[in-house]
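<context>
A single protein, sequence plus fold
<sample>
Here is the protein in question:
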Amino acid sequence: MPNTRTAGDDASARYRRRQRARGATGVLVHLPNETISLIDAIKERKGLRSRGQALQLLIEEWRDAPPRTA
């Protein structure tokens, strides 16, 4: 089987290694367009640079919130 790797593959692997070294991991998710619109609205409202930052903010706020009682 021929080698189909490209220089970009190596660059991507190096990027992922650097991210892991600093304690970060990439995640690919498929979400409904409505959910993406909500994330984008949060991103704009908070002045964030990326959807990832918006999601991280939401997760941190959820984690730090007091538990809800039924």
Notes: The longest helix spans residues 7-21.
